[in-house]
């Protein structure tokens, strides 16, 4: 029995030492990773090369087995020669620059709080650091809108391109509504898929009130403010008609600012006829002047690849374990809110 107890104690000590070493190594790796990824990572993907490779794969798939072998043999020789030439140029200190203009492709899939603007600002800063007068930017946008200040900042980031005279095209495949359209209208050109949802130039807010429930249970909630309109509506106290009126005034003022912003970005738009809070499908939005062309982002990109080098720019920041968990929960909530909005605001197919 003593032998078993001693063996168990010895095993426990070994496990403790191994666990301590594991924890120490994890801490060192995390500290090193935090320093290395403190600013995040900018990833560049050559979409022109990806499309060309896909095109070649489809063409080769149509050849018979013998022709495929010959093609692969030819390609291997070609790549070997290109690598040799590139190495020789590098030794001579030569730099090969394409004579085509560059199309920088950004992606923005917006949530309710528009936290994706953190990556967008880094991507735009990176583009502005190297962009040439003939270069362009394409933003693939998907967002049903959200908080005013978040989407206001996102639209301001896109204005940086406009102020720098960089041509900006926004492509909408699914939805650019409310704050999403606030971003889209900054572009020189808006392209949307036929059944994408566009518009919803309006402001909405709703506040639940539990005052009567609390009153029935003899629960008092005290709210103290300094300033007449520091709090107009409250969750737990008794709301007044004066507070409701002020709340509606604030909504109307925000709507006026929204309308003015869209009008400034697209002066030819009849703003009063479209700033009703309604949304339209892509083909209808074209008739209203909310967009400039009906197309998918894929067709738009393939067309631009003929005369541009197409580079996707994506900024990512390494997330901590807790951020990954909370971020996943937030995304689930966003998706739930989006489904509710879709069911309430548009018919289901």
UniProtKB/TrEMBL annotation:
Keywords: Cell membrane, Coiled coil, Hydrolase, Membrane, Protease, Serine protease, Transmembrane, Transmembrane helix. Residues 2-158 form the Peptidase S49 N-terminal proteobacteria domain. Residues 162-309 form the Peptidase S49 domain. It comes from the Bacteria. The chain crosses the membrane at residues 12-33. It is found in: Cell membrane. One of its GO terms (molecular function) is serine-type endopeptidase activity. Residues 37-64 form a coiled coil. InterPro entries: ClpP/crotonase-like_dom_sf, Peptidase_S49, Peptidase_S49_N_proteobac, S49_SppA_C. The keyword Protease applies. GO terms for biological process: proteolysis. Its EC number is 3.4.-.-, 3.4.21.-. GO terms for cellular component: plasma membrane. The keyword Protease applies. Belongs to the peptidase S49 family. This is Putative protease. It comes from Buttiauxella agrestis ATCC 33320.
